[in-house]
Each structure stands twice: as C-alpha cells, then as structure tokens.
Design a protein that fits this description.
93 residues
C-alpha cells in the first residue's frame, strides 16, 4: 500500500488505514510530512516531504509518487519511453 499521510484533515484516518494494512501483514510505503515520526513508526518505508500549506501538499507528494511509478515500471519491464495507448499530437506552425 502506498499511503499519503501528510498533515491535513484526513491524516488520522490514513494512520488508521496504515495500521489495518499492517495488521493484515501488508507492506506500507508512506509519504509523510518531515518530522512526522508517528507515520514513520507505522510504515515500512517513509518518504518525507517538507512542511507546507495543505494547498501545496499535493504538488510535493506527486514528485515521489511519479518516481515510484517510474521505478516500478522499469523493474517490471515496461518500456517507459514508449507507453501503450497514449494519444500523441504534434502541432506544427
């Protein structure tokens, strides 16, 4: 499970979800706010982002998620430079 548990209004619910996944033997990769040891203690792996406004948090959390998606795709053998079913358009002026 990949959990986004930054300091916002649903953080406590996400921590509860992390605990449930761990209780069932699942692996948790968490993205948390820098210095949030509560989330770090409950997750197997934690990626920290700097403290920021809740409005800016999605912009900062998407960066490690994109890197995770890239590395998983490479590991399972997908050609990340030639994705399938992607509509491409070129504008020439």
């Amino acid at each position: 499970m990949v959990a986004i548990a930054v300091h916002d209004h649903v953080r406590d619910k996400m921590i509860s979800n992390i605990e449930q996944v761990r209780a069932r033997g699942g692996t948790v990769i968490a993205i948390a706010t820098e210095g949030d040891n509560e989330v770090a203690d409950k997750a197997d792996t934690t990626i920290f982002i700097p403290r920021c406004s809740p409005l800016l948090a999605p912009v900062l959390t998407v960066i490690p998620l994109q890197l995770l998606a890239y590395h998983v795709a490479v590991r399972i053998g997908c050609d990340v430079d030639q994705p399938r079913n992607l509509a491409k358009s070129v504008t020439v002026e």
